Amino acid sequence: MRHRYVIAMALLVTTALVGGVAGPAAGAQPTTTASPTIDHSTDGPGAQQTDAACEFPLEITDATGTTITLDERPERITTTNPSAAQTLWEIGARDRVVGVTQYAAYLDGASERENVSAEGFGVSVERVVDTEPDLVLVPNASSASTAETLRAQNLTVYHYAEATSIEAIAEKTETTGRLVGNCEAAAETNAEMNEAVAAAENRTAGLDRPNALYPLGDGYVAAGNTFINSIMEAGGVANVAAAEGDGYPQLSNEVILQTDPELILVTTPDAVILEEEPYASTTAGTEGNYVVMNVNYLNQPAPRSVIESTTTLSTAVEELQTESDGATDGEDESADGDDGGDGDTTSDGDDGSTEDGSDGSTGEGSTGDSAPGFGVVAALIAAIATALIARRR
């Protein structure tokens, strides 16, 4: 029998999935010449930064080791990755954004900005130049050469380091706030994120942590030392792929069966991946345990992603365990001699479900660089609904 729980339904969005966060960006971590004073002791990373630290001119070094100078607050900002766009929306700088990629289309008002995506995949240098930006924010998913290509057009470009944890996302948010002069709003956003993470951790603190897996397609998974792994941990699950390596490795069917996840994270409501091997033969597949995550939020290293994903996942874990405990209680009552039924004799008649799985993605718009499972030729148009958890037996 399948029991379905609708925790919350989000806006249905359409997005193309390509990615490229499989490797760290080269160069040093970002630094500024006058680093703001930040108190991490109470509210978490970046929570105390204020606009007093946001004076211009600013000199700041990005992940390529390049120091850029902003003489005044940028009034025209172009982003070549959706997570930077999401962050700018969160910290109140959206009105100054003039260019975004197609992968930021889910953001309210993004359609009113110039689409700087190239035909097919990647970013169009010409379109970026045409936005006449004061600042271009480039993702870690792009190689250093992408930033250099844009700099050759006399553009001011900041290239992010890879965010591999929630703490790193907070630092990235803080840096974005510093770049655009919205330090206080960035601090408030980080405080909201830290609060949501704490709530998610508290929600599952007394519960068993189910072994979970997030398949990206073709055997690729989100493993250790990734922001997705950090979200999974905060959401109350144990990521079985973390023991198999870091980043986004490709696992064989045999290894996936050995990890035997109890819960599968999917990004489409039909979740058909649970009927495909090797997933169908795992505990998650045989019991039909999955949670539907919003692909934009789960796959983009940005504060709203953390807030929504940890809340969705921790709530699903709580619901799943509550149902499991209830089923156990029912079996105990039956064993005590009430009636001989096993409490599991009806079905709602729904078909099994799966994620397409043909395209692994971490949501950062590709700039044409390739990595295993990401940034290759295929893209998937996905209809997203969040926080639907189903359990089928």
Q: What is the oligomeric state here?
A: single chain
Class by SSE composition:
alpha/beta
Beta content? 15-25%
| CATH architecture call of the largest domain | 3-Layer(aba) Sandwich
Q: What share of residues is helical?
A: 25-40%
Rg, nearest Å = 22 Å
- Mass-distribution shape: globular
Q: What is the fold-level CATH name, i.e. the topology of the largest domain? A: Rossmann fold
Which stretches are poorly predicted, pLDDT < 50 over at least 5 residues? 1-43, 331-393
Biggest sheet record = 6 strands, mixed
- Name given to the CATH homologous superfamily of the largest domain: Nitrogenase molybdenum iron protein domain
Which CATH first-tier class of the largest domain would you pick?
Answer: Alpha Beta
Average pLDDT metric: 77
Strand order of the largest sheet: 1-18-16-15-11-14
**What is the chain-wise order of helices and strands?**
EEEEEEHEEHEHEHHEEEHEHEHEHHEE
Number of separate helices = 10
Quick rundown:
The protein has ten helices and 18 strands. The chain is of the alpha/beta class and 393 residues long. The strands form five sheets. A six-stranded mixed β-sheet has the order 1-18-16-15-11-14. The chain has a five-stranded parallel β-sheet with strand order 8-7-6-9-10, with helices on both faces.
